[in-house]
Amino acid sequence: MSKISHFGPKIEFHIGIDDTDSVRGGCTTYIAAQIIRKLVKEFEVEFIDYPNLIRLNPNVPYKTRGNGAVAIRVLVNENLIEEIKRTVIQEVEKWFMIEDEKTNPGIAFLRGKIPTPLKCFAKKVIRDIVEIEEAERIAKMLNVEIIGYKERRGIIGALAAVGETLDGDYTYELLAYRKRENWGTPRRVDPQSVMLMDRETFPLTFNNVDYETGRILITPHGPDPVLFGIRGENPRVLIEALKYIKTGEPIACWVIFRTNQGTDDHLIVYRKISELRPYLPCKIKAIVDSKPEVIEGGHVIVRLRDETGAIDAAAYEPTGDFRKIIQKLEPGDEIIAYGGVRPLNGSKFTVNLEKIEIVKLARKFISRNPKCPKCGKRMKSLGRSGGYRCKKCGLKLVDAEKEVEEIKRDLKDGLYIPPPRAHRHLTKPYQRYGLEKKRKETIKLHEPWYYFSE
Ligand code: ATP
């Protein structure tokens, strides 16, 4: 098929999509892949970035799974834009799970450069809760065209995806998709090949395997079209990693996305305890206020406080050995707690811990009765009247004092993160500390960054 092209000046055109899938199937990144396929095959466009996979506030109650939205950014002749928009709408409507009650798709189209207020809006959607009306206002003010279906909630994510230009830290994910006839069947990906890939590409790929349980993390489990996703620092290592993966089913297509996954971008802003509200991501400087408690289900709860208030924080059962660290905390420990605010029944809420940093351990002491200077036995207190008596030799001391001894803490200052299986997509894993990057002005696309079998 010959491509639709036009002469004349080119402009930037940004496409945002969100909320197209449901637990019964679908995936917004898959729709993005289908749109890219059409753009590559049928239009003369220049991609100015990899497609962006933007993870939004992971605590929102409306999400299907990972609260992801997608942006596609091209340089194109203005005369082509209407045709491209029609193609995008067609593809979204072809694949979205519109009959699902919780699916409220949204599309955003922006011509030209990304305005700063849209960048700020995107950060708010990653770090806070936003109303649909606010998204509508912003879109109107900035001339972003939005299309919302049903309750229109997807326009929030679609706009945020367009606005998040990943100028700070970022990573990549290569997403490989299944042939349609295999959707809903068990995925056939050889776990040994994933482990080998993990070893060979460490530390430049991350969260491939959860070694505490031996679980493979690159494959999802639902009926969606994703076969696997490999997360990493750069496109080249992802192509390299792909060569290791052995599958028992064909790969229909794959696309490399640039993303905020593994960057902690939701946990940048410090908040006071009094500012916490349900569904907010949070990072708080706090003092441990109680001895941690293990509750039914194996969850560990600890009370935290700062100068504005107190709140319970929880390390839930899926965080595995991370709970053992929380259990070792003592009142007075200074920590930075990272997590998301979860509402409980009534007006109560807790912080669901995603990681902690121990800033300063409190010193802990025990006091004991003095030892008898004559026979070395520990003496017995004579009560209020004062003094101690040795039970063995009968020696009595009136002015002896208790011995105070410091207890060695079985814990060190530093960062503690749950195992990869309990991570949010946005959580920065240990191995990325020190690998953070800052975007250079333009992103150069390395070929190949997509593959379509037909
Ligand atoms: P998947 O990861 O499988 O694509 P999902 O977990 O991304 O699915 P969505 O189906 O996209 O879930 O649903 C999330 C919905 O919540 C979208 O409509 C999105 O616009 C909205 N949303 C995202 N972030 C916020 C936020 N901070 N405040 C309010 N609404 C939000």
Task: Please specify the SSE layout and strand pairing.
Blueprint lengths: L9 E9 L9 H15 L3 E2 L4 E4 L12 E10 L3 H15 L10 E6 L4 H12 L4 H10 L3 E4 L5 H10 L7 E8 L12 H11 L3 E2 L2 E2 L4 E2 L9 E7 L2 H10 L6 E9 L21 E8 L4 E3 L3 E8 L2 E7 L6 H6 L6 E10 L5 E12 L3 E5 L11 E2 L6 E2 L6 E2 L5 E5 L6 E3 L33 E3 L2
Parallel strand pairs: 3-12, 16-18
Antiparallel strand pairs: 1-4, 1-5, 2-4, 3-4, 5-6, 7-11, 7-12, 8-11, 9-10, 12-25, 13-15, 13-17, 14-15, 15-16, 17-18, 18-24, 19-23, 20-21, 21-22
Helix pairs in contact: 1-2, 3-5, 6-7
The site of adenosine-5'-triphosphate has 24 residues, from helix 5.
In short:
With 454 residues, the chain is of the alpha+beta class. Helix content is 20%, strand content 30%.
Structural class: alpha+beta
Q: How many strands in all?
A: 25
Number of helices: 8
| CATH architecture name of one domain | 2-Layer Sandwich
Report the sheet-strand fraction. Answer: 25-35%
Largest sheet: 11 strands, mixed
The 3D shape can be described as elongated
